[in-house]
Give the backbone structure.
Amino acid sequence: MEHRKLGHLDVPVIGLGTARTFDVKAPAEIALRQQVMDECVHHRTTFIDSSPMYGRSERVIGLTTDGRRDKFQFATKVWCSGKTQGEAQIAESFRLFKTDYVELIQIHNLVDWKSHLATLERLRNQGKIGLIGITHYQTSAYPSMLEIMRDGRIDTIQIPYHVLERTCEEGVLPLAADLGIGVIVMEPLDKGRLVKGLRKAPDLAPLAAYEIQTWGQALLAWVVSDLRVSVAIPATTRPGRIAENARAGNVGKLPQELRDYIRDETERCL
């Protein structure tokens, strides 16, 4: 698995998102997520992203990584209004994760970012967190994100980026590269729509030389082929999917003509 810089961290280019997929409570469902985490360790897909917004996700991550915390890099978020509530929410994330250190805490969707940024800077200075980030799922928030990025107080951003959503290429990715800000890509498969929503079977033949065997791998390879991206975080509940996704992290930089092909073929098959 290729690794890149996310701030001062070396991270795998393919990580794991947990929105919707880790919000479970039945023992059998938690056991399945345990298998997912086993595969993450085996294939070095060890950057794990969560949020209080994701229901039981942080708790399930804490349970399924217990006893092997050192194998993972945790990223979570603060998602509330008010300094006091933010501090309480962050403390709860530490408790649920069963850890005294979190590699990255992000301000989710920029909610009350001014209050939380000060808190996160204090925690970073105390050595309790490693990096500070901001996120947003709407491209309409990019002007605000750009302003915060230019202030020099954050280390990472998390944004949507896939073959059919390329708005970030216009300003966000260039600025991140200029400032050395790490980029986490959410929803690289558009919540699975770019794989499950296909009406035709894509032609993989032009990608054979890169050992791309599934369209999911092609889409992930398209994202991380942009070297401004630090890590993409597809979500899954299938342990076997971790190995498939990890292979996309070994492809390296695709020629532009193949990136164009993957985009055009996706549009043709939807």
